[in-house]
Design goal:
Blueprint: E1 2-7, H1 10-24, E2 28-33, H2 44-50, E3 57-58, H3 66-84, E4 88-92, H4 96-107, E5 112-115, H5 127-138, E6 141-144, H6 147-155, E7 162-164, H7 168-183, H8 186-189, E8 198-201, H9 205-208, H10 211-222, E9 228-231, H11 234-242, E10 251-254, H12 259-268, E11 271-274, H13 277-285, E12 290-292, E13 308-310, H14 315-323, H15 340-348
Parallel strand pairs: 1-2, 1-4, 2-3, 4-5, 5-6, 6-7, 8-9, 8-11, 9-10, 11-12, 12-13
Helix pairs in contact: 1-7, 1-15, 3-4, 4-5, 7-12, 10-14
Length: 353
C-alpha cells in the first residue's frame, strides 16, 4: 500500500516521526513537506534529530496570509497527489498544511486519515479550530488521542472510522526523552540549574497579533522571581519588535530550539508557560506544572489534578498560577501507552468504513 503523508510545521514533524517509522516497516510511504515552517530551527533540525527521512516532495510554500498560503499548498499538493496516486493520505494536527491536505485528498476522492482527530477549543475565531473541524468531517480514518476526543467527535455525529489510538506525541517523547538527556547541553550552555527557571513559549495569533495582549504577557514573565527562557518563533519576535516591547532582564530571549533541546528545557523547568497545545501535553507527560496563556485548551485532560492552569493574558492569574506549588498527585495516564503509531498503521490497513 502507498501512503502519502503531509507535514509542514514543527509539531507535525514530531508526530510524523514515529508514524513514518511504523509505516515504512510495512508499506510504501511518500513524505510531503509543504514548507509552512522553513527556517532551519523550525524544520531541518527536526528532521535531523527525529531521524525523519528527507521529504520526497518539498512544496516550498513558505509563510503568508491564510488564504494565499493554503491556496498555494492546495494547488501544489493536488499535483503531487495526482502524480503519486496513493491509497491513503495522512494529515496531522490543525495547521494550514492540515487544511490543504484535507481538501486536496477529499477533492481527489482519496481516503483521508487525520492524526489528532477530535480536539476542540470551541473557539471558532481560532484558525486552528476551523482547520481541525474541516479535517475531521472530511476524514475516513479519525485517530483520536484520548477518550475525550472520541466523545467530542460523537457530539458532532462522527462515529464511523474513529479509532482511539493514544497520543502519538507520547510515542515521540518516550523515544526521544532519553536521547535528549544524553545529547542536549542547553541547560549547561545557558547556565541553568534543574528546576531553577521558567520556560515560556508564545506563538498563537490571539496573543501575538494583539500588541496589548503580547505586552501584558511579556511583562508578566518579567515579574517572575527567576530566569525565564523564551525561545521565540520568528513571527513572535517580529511582533515584539514591532510593538517596541522590551522584555525584563530576567527574560532570556533565544532563537527557536530543536526538539531535543526543547525536551531538555521542559524537563528541567520549574514551570512552563505556553499557548501551545503540544507543549501543554509535554509538560503534563514530563510532570512539570504548566500555565496556559489562553482561556481554553484542546487538552482538558491536562487540567486534572492542577498540572495545567488556564490563565489567559491576565498578569495576576499568570503570576498566581506560575508561583503555585507543584501538584502532589501524579498525572493520570490519559495519553496512551506509547504505541499509537502501530494502532494507526493497523487501522489504515483496513478498508475505510
Amino acid at each position: 500500500m502507498k501512503i502519502l503523508t503531509v507535514a509542514g510545521a514543527r509539531p507535525q514533524f514530531i508526530k510524523a516521526a514515529p508514524l513514518t517509522a511504523a509505516l515504512r516497516a510495512r508499506h510504501q510511504q511518500v513524505l510531503v513537506h509543504t514548507g509552512q515552517h522553513y527556517d532551519d530551527n523550525m524544520s531541518a533540525v527536526f528532521f535531523d534529530e527525529l531521524g525523519l527521512p528527507a521529504p520526497d516532495h518539498h512544496l516550498g510554500v513558505g509563510s503568508g496570509a491564510h488564504g494565499a498560503q493554503t491556496a498555494q499548498m492546495l494547488e501544489r499538493l493536488e499535483a503531487v497527489i495526482v502524480d503519486e496516486a496513493p491509497d491513503r493520505v495522512i494529515i496531522f494536527g490543525d495547521t494550514n498544511s492540515t487544511l490543504a491536505g484535507a481538501l486536496a485528498a477529499a477533492k481527489l476522492g482519496l481516503p483521508l486519515a487525520h492524526v489528532e482527530a477530535g480536539l476542540r477549543s470551541h473557539v471558532r475565531s481560532m484558525p486552528e479550530e476551523i482547520n481541525r473541524i474541516v479535517a475531521d468531517h472530511l476524514s475516513a480514518y479519525l485517530f483520536a488521542p484520548t477518550p475525550h476526543a472520541v466523545a467530542e467527535l460523537a457530539r458532532e455525529g462522527i462515529t464511523r472510522g474513529v479509532t482511539l489510538t493514544g497520543d502519538i506525541m507520547h510515542d515521540a517523547l518516550l523515544q526521544h526523552a532519553p536521547v535528549a538527556a544524553e545529547r542536549s547541553s542547553i541547560l549547561h550552555d545557558l547556565g541553568l540549574g534543574h528546576r531553577s527557571y521558567a520556560l515560556a513559549t508564545i506563538h498563537r495569533a490571539a496573543n501575538t497579533d494583539d500588541p496589548a495582549c503580547l505586552r501584558t504577557i511579556v511583562n508578566a514573565l518579567g515579574m517572575l522571581d527567576e530566569p525565564v527562557v523564551l525561545p521565540l518563533h520568528p513571527r513572535t519576535r517580529a511582533a515584539i519588535a514591532g510593538a517596541e516591547i522590551r522584555p525584563a532582564p530576567n527574560v532570556r530571549v533565544t532563537d527557536p530550539v530543536g526538539y531535543l533541546d526543547m525536551l531538555a528545557l521542559e524537563r528541567g523547568a520549574r514551570v512552563i508557560l505556553t499557548d501551545s497545545g503540544g507543549v501543554q501535553k509535554e509538560a503534563y507527560l514530563l510532570q512539570v506544572p504548566c500555565v496556559t496563556l489562553r482561556e481554553e485548551t484542546e487538552w482538558p485532560e491536562t487540567l486534572e489534578a492542577g498540572w495545567n492552569v488556564l490563565a489567559g493574558a491576565d498578569p495576576a492569574r499568570i503570576l498566581a498560577a506560575a508561583r503555585r506549588p507543584a501538584p502532589i498527585a501524579e498525572p493520570a495516564a490519559v495519553f496512551g501507552d506509547g504505541h499509537a503509531a502501530e494502532r494507526m498503521v493497523a487501522a489504515l490497513e483496513r478498508e475505510p468504513a
